[in-house]
Amino acid sequence: MNMPKLFPSTNKYHNSIGRGLLSRLWILSGAILLLWACHPPRETGRDLVLPEIISKDFTHFYPPEAYDQGLEGKVVLLIRIENDGSVSEARVEETSRHDILNEAALTMARILRFTPALVSGEPKALWMKMPVVFRCDDHLKTFIDLEDWLRAAREYQAAAVTGTDQNRRNAHQDMMRHYVHLAHKMMANRSLSSNRVVLELATPAVHDLWDDYQGVWPLSFVPFQDYLRRYSDSEYANLAENYLREYVEYEVSSLKKALAVGTPDALTKRQLLVNLTQLLTELKPDTAEPD
To answer: Helices 266-283 and 237-261 sit at what angle, rounded to 10 degrees?
Structure first.
C-alpha cells in the first residue's frame, strides 16, 4: 500500500507504515529478547555450525493482557530443532512464574524456523536451550500522555465543525495526524490502556461496536473507523480508509495466531475476530480473507 506523504511533521509515521511496517514488526510490546544458551551435542573432531533463527514476526506473542498488567519474566525453554530447521518439541525448563508468559514463549518457539545445525556440513537435529525474556520497557509503557492526547483531540473535533472552511480543513488534517500518531504508538505498544481514550472519543456508533472488546485486545484500528464516520467528506478520508484496512488486517492475523494456540478470553476474542473479518470483507470485498 502506498501512503501519501501528507504531513511533513509526521512523515516518520506515514513512511514506516506505508512501507509495510505492520507486516514486518518483530519487536514486541515492550520487548522480548531472544537470548541463546546453546548446549549442542558433543561432536569431537567435527565442525559444528549452530542453528540461526530465520523467523522475524514475534509481535503477537506478548499477550496484551500480560503487558497491560506489567507482567515480566524470563522463560527458559528446551527446544528440539530438526534437520530441516523446524521445531518439533518445546518445553519449559525454567518458569517465568507467570503461566501466561510461559505459554506465550512456548507458542512462539513451536512456530519458529531456523537454519539447520550442521555437523561436518551435514544437517543434524539437536536440542538447544532458549531463554525468552519478556520485559515491559518503561518508556514505552508511558509512551503517550493519554489525557493530554484526549484533550487535544477534543479541541480538533470542535474546530472541525466550527469556523471557516479553511479552519475546518485544517482541523481535519490535525485530527488525522493525531489519530495516526496514536495508532502508530498503539501498534508499537500492545498495552490495552489506549482503548479507553479511543472509545471515549469515538462516535456512539463506533463505541458500541467495540466496547465489549476493550479489555481483551488492542483496538488500534478504531481511530480510523471513527475518522471515516465523522469526516467522510474530508480530503483525508481515503487515507483513513487505507489505514483502517491495514490495521484491521494486522489485528485479524494476530488474533488468528493467538486463538490457534490458546489464549485467555478466547470466546470474546473469537467473536472479535468474526466482527473484524466481516469489517475486512466490507473494506476489501474482492480480496480473500488473510491468513
So the answer is: 140
Its pTM stands at: 0.61
Report the 3 state secondary structure along the chain. CCCCCCCHHHHHHHHHHHCCHHHHCCCCCCEEEECCECCCCCCCCCCEECCCECCCCCHHHCCHHHHHCCCCEEEEEEEEECCCCEEEEEEEEECCCCHHHHHHHHHHHHHCEECCEEECCEEECEEEEEEEEEECCHHHHCCCCHHHHHHHHHHHHHHCCCCCHHHHHHHHHHHHHHHHHHHHHHHHCCCCCHHHHHHHHCCHHHHHHHHHHCCCCCCCCHHHHHHHHHCCCCCCHHHHHHHHHHHHHHHHHHHHHHHHHCCCCHHHHHHHHHHHHHHHHHHCCCCCCCC
Q: Give me the sign of the Cα torsion angle 207, 209, 212, 213.
A: negative
Rounded Cα–Cα distance for residues 279 and 165 (Å):
32
Query: For 6-27, how does the pLDDT look when each residue is reduced to its tens digit (9 = 90+)?
Result: 333 333 333 333 333 333 223 3
Q: What is the set of domains in the chain, with CATH numbers?
A: 31-137 (3.30.2420.10), 143-283 (no CATH)
C-alpha cell of residue 166: 479553511
Amino acid at 74: K
**What is the C-alpha R_g of the chain?**
22
43/191 Cα distance (integer angstroms): 45
Reported as a single tens digit per residue, the pLDDT across 151-184 is 999 999 999 988 788 888 999 999 999 999 898 8
